[in-house]
């Protein structure tokens, strides 16, 4: 028996053991809210045309903005290995400064306040 087959047998056995144990360990205590198909808190029998707060969209846009910031800054450690790491540092600083100024502007304008 070689190493590959040993590793495969161990992985399959461990997966089967964990799948079997996962059916025995959890304690199922269902209640009315858990059995409801709508766990979001909205009344499923009410009107479907309730006004939706635009604040939730603001949070989503802010999340996407800062997620994009992380995606733009992800290559920063590899960019430091280039011939001119100062250029990489200046571009990263420019991105962070621009996003920070935008966040400060939104904060001052009251766009991040939940209560009106």
TrEMBL record:
Family matches, as Pfam families: Oxidored_q4 (PF00507)
Gene3D superfamilies per the record? NADH:ubiquinone/plastoquinone oxidoreductase, chain 3 (1.20.58.1610)
**What GO MF annotations does this protein's record show?**
NADH dehydrogenase (ubiquinone) activity
Q: Does the keyword Mitochondrion apply?
A: yes
- Which Enzyme Commission numbers does its entry carry? 7.1.1.2
Query: How is this protein positioned relative to the membrane?
Result: Multi-pass membrane protein
Give the main location. mitochondrion
Task: Indicate where this protein resides in the cell.
Answer: Mitochondrion membrane
Could you state one GO cellular component term attached to this entry? mitochondrial membrane
Return the InterPro entries for the record.
Answer: NADH_UbQ/plastoQ_OxRdtase_su3, NDAH_ubi_oxred_su3_sf
Its keywords, alphabetically, are: Electron transport, Membrane, Mitochondrion, NAD, Respiratory chain, Translocase, Transmembrane, Transmembrane helix, Transport, Ubiquinone
- Family membership noted in the UniProt record: Belongs to the complex I subunit 3 family.
Function in brief: Core subunit of the mitochondrial membrane respiratory chain NADH dehydrogenase (Complex I) which catalyzes electron transfer from NADH through the respiratory chain, using ubiquinone as an electron acceptor. Essential for the catalytic activity of complex I.
Q: What is this protein called?
A: NADH-ubiquinone oxidoreductase chain 3
Q: Which organism is it from?
A: Percilia irwini
Q: What are the top taxonomic ranks of the organism?
A: Eukaryota, Metazoa, Chordata, Craniata, Vertebrata
UniProt gene name: ND3
């Amino acid at each position: 028996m070689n190493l590959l087959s040993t590793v495969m047998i161990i992985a399959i056995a461990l997966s089967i053991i964990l799948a079997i144990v996962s059916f025995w360990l959890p304690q199922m205590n269902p209640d009315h809210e858990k059995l409801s198909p709508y766990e979001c808190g909205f009344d499923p029998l009410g009107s479907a045309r309730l006004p939706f707060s635009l604040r939730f969209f603001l949070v989503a846009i802010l999340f996407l903005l800062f997620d994009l910031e992380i995606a733009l800054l992800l290559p920063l450690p590899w960019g430091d290995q280039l011939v001119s790491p100062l250029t990489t540092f200046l571009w990263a600083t420019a991105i962070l400064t621009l996003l920070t100024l935008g966040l400060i502007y939104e904060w001052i304008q009251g766009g991040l306040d939940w209560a009106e």
